[in-house]
Fold these 2 entries.
Entry 1:
Amino acid sequence: MLVRLGPSGGSAVAWNRRTHLPSFLTFAPVRHAAAGLGLRIERWLYADADETALEACQADWRPAVRQLASDPRSVPSVADSLAAFNRHVRPMERVHRTRCKYLTYRRAVLTWAVWKGVLPDLLPMSDDMLRAFLWDALAFEASLSVLRQAINAILAWHDRLRLEPPLSGKRAYKRLVHSLSRFQGVPRRLIFPIYAGAVKRLLTQRPPAHPPCHGVRGGCRVCISFLPIRRNCLAGATSTLICSRCGEVADLQVCDLWQRFDEQAGYERFRGGAAVNVKIRKNDQFRQGHQPRLGVPQHPEHDVVQQLLSFQRDAGLAVHPACAKRRHPERRCPLCPPMFPRSARGGRGFAVDRQPTAGDLSSMIVSGLRHAGYDTALFSGISARRGGLSTAIEAGVPEHILWMQSGHAQDVAARRYVQLGSPALLYDTWAAFRL
């Protein structure tokens, strides 16, 4: 690589140390190599991984557009309007996380092209060029998952540049992936679901035995030190009962727990229950929203709604008086804290200034299970969603109702026309746990 780039270019190379394939950290070495060959490839080097202003606005898009758009009285040119669209809207053809991955793989392909000396012939990429890249990737022990993501990134790259993509023949993509799978296929990692018994154990965890006290608000050190464990157990139980991904639960705020939701609509039989407002999901990128339900159990010690409210009071996590979540359920509330906040540095209190990550939430779930007495070697954050869906299916909850709770199959056209006359069926997922 140093020979290809020469002394001036090689001395400035910075490598991305977090990738499976050798990759430059920036496009600078590629630009240097292209300049030495007299190539004009700036069009190839677009970087769309940053979160756009319209993504950062959390669905409050009108003020964001007003700030970004030109004054209509100035009559912007068609070229200016197109450039603004391509900068602020077009990147959202794919979600932010996918764009970050694809950018990493584009850099890996360009790094390979510089190393091979094939930069002038790289795009549009032929099938043979793609197979050569995949073979060299295998030499770096790239897994099937890495190879598939690299192929998808290359195809998306061609689509963005409006170039003829590789693997355009009939079933060419499927045949290629099949050939890679035949020798790389491995069993999935065994992950145990969180079944009903585990949910009950999570909801019955109590502080260690200690003299009578006045609880957290009375300054009891034992109760205060137990707050993170309560959070972990409730995070695991809640994630399982609403069949959610870790990222979705990590994004919840205290104002997303809607008490008396169905009771206020006139359904007295659901008094004491609550809805959880999941404002965006992987299969709901258009923010239509989901409100899975939490009901009232037969045993008070399993009442997850009351435990959530009690935890929020003890942890000082209150809904702000000026919260507008009910009016704008699709937006993140700038005033209310997370429902499951991260522990502050030093272990004292909670950090409420920003939401936890999906990884943080997964760690909370595993820690809660560990405290409940489970060997957590075969548990992870996905155990919650897997356990919730499995328990509901085994209890006979109709799939089309379960999917409305879990956020699956939002691409089925008929789903958007379904409007239940009663929320009773939406409680079936919760009832499957027989709390």
Entry 2:
Amino acid sequence: MHEAPSRRLASGDQIKALPANLEKTRDDPSNWQVYYQDPITGDEWYSGVYEEGWASTHYLVKLPGPSPEELVQTAVHTPHRDEALVASLPVKRYPEPLGALMDELERLSEGASPEGWERTEDVIKWASLVSEVNRREILGKSADLVESDYQHFLDIAQRARRLQETAERRKRGVEG
């Protein structure tokens, strides 16, 4: 069994459940973040907003922020749905851990409970895993390398769709 890192991500109403005594230390208007410090523990946090289309998600992250690999583990294994959301959203901006995220979701689906299937569907949606968009840099690459990168993301999207279809069947009580 994998263990998610201790709780250090939150969104929405769950932000209120985290340290109430945080003191603002600075603003970073270049990326819409505000930094805080817990005067008792010295822990540092930052808050921000992920915006995509018409939707936005307010979040709070304990520093140091998780690595892409930790985001993958948190997205799949944390018992906190809001923490999974906050971990899933930035993963889509890092192209390299997307394959690892799909691997982890496929492992989770083996003998998954209804909650496991729900988490699988959530993470696929939040991390935009069904997108076939090549998320790697294309400038300076040959057409063959760009095509290879595209095929990588196409494979991830196809795997994600298969998992979504399986989750839907399982939720309706149909095996397979």
